[in-house]
Q: What sequence folds into this?
């Protein structure tokens, strides 16, 4: 009984206070303003990036098509832009096939036999591109270098000298299509990469689109009228590329047109994939900045 009373009289433990919440550090004054401005700046950059991905490539192709089909615009583009990519296309095809080649205005001088020096120099440059991509974790550079090595192997090992000469001749307008597409693709390079510094990608986009359309529109028009194929003799140079491929190498006019058009369509398809991927990533980045909970 006494024990029960002692228990009854024992003081009750004081209720414990709830644990204090950890203090939340809130930025105030200049620090908060700087953080807000930085956040708004990132979102604005993401919005601009999205608009560029939406409109840059389609608008460039449409404007280039209009200019190329205008009398004065087409001549200016051919003289100052596409002619250089055309000749570089000849030279690039020759280098990948192991032939020495020197591009110049309106003509590219190419050796008649393969050169081991050219093969080693090109292989070294492509290997360096792969290494740079691996060190910088740039898959695009690695893919570009690997693709170049595969093309070099096919051009130098699998192709006979006669077939290689056909490819080099074909490589003129093919260079406008392929190299032009690569220049347009610089729009989708990382934001702080070299092609995006100082607005360089805008110039490369226009050069690429104009050169691509100059070649593609010509072969598109040739589908319905063979008179649009530039057959003939070029003063100081010799036969034009189409005349060489048809008269010397035995291609038919239909084969000639179809091969250029299929290459152009393949380039457009690759650009369409790049456009879709770039657009998706830009929207995803903007969505994450506008709503961090979506990450």
A:
């Amino acid at each position: 009984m006494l024990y029960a009373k002692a228990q009854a009289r024992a003081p009750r433990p004081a209720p414990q206070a709830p644990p204090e919440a950890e203090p939340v550090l809130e930025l105030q004054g200049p620090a908060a303003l700087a953080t807000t401005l930085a956040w708004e700046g990132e979102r604005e950059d993401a919005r601009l990036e999205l608009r560029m991905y939406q409109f840059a490539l389609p608008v460039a192709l449409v404007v280039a098509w209009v200019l190329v089909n205008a009398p004065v615009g087409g001549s200016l583009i051919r003289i100052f832009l596409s002619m250089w990519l055309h000749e570089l296309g000849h030279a690039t095809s020759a280098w990948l096939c192991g032939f020495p080649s020197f591009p110049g205005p309106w003509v590219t001088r190419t050796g008649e036999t393969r050169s081991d020096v050219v093969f080693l120099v090109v292989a070294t440059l492509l290997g360096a591109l792969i290494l740079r991509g691996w060190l910088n974790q740039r898959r695009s550079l690695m893919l570009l270098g690997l693709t170049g090595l595969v093309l070099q192997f096919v051009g130098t090992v699998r192709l006979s000298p006669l077939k290689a000469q056909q490819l080099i001749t074909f490589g003129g307008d093919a260079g406008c299509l392929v190299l032009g597409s690569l220049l347009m693709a610089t729009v989708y390079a990382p934001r702080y990469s070299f092609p995006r510094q100082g607005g360089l990608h805008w110039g490369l986009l226009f050069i690429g689109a104009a050169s691509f359309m100059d070649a593609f529109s010509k072969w598109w028009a040739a589908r319905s009228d063979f008179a649009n194929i530039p057959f003939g003799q070029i003063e100081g140079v010799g036969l034009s590329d189409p005349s060489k491929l048809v008269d010397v190498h035995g291609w038919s006019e239909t084969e000639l047109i179809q091969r250029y058009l299929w290459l152009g369509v393949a380039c457009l398809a690759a650009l369409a994939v790049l456009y879709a991927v770039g657009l998706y990533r830009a929207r995803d980045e903007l969505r994450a900045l506008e709503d961090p909970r979506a990450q």
About this structure: The chain has a mean pLDDT of 88. The CA atoms of residues 16 and 94 lie 85 Å apart. The radius of gyration is 31 Å.
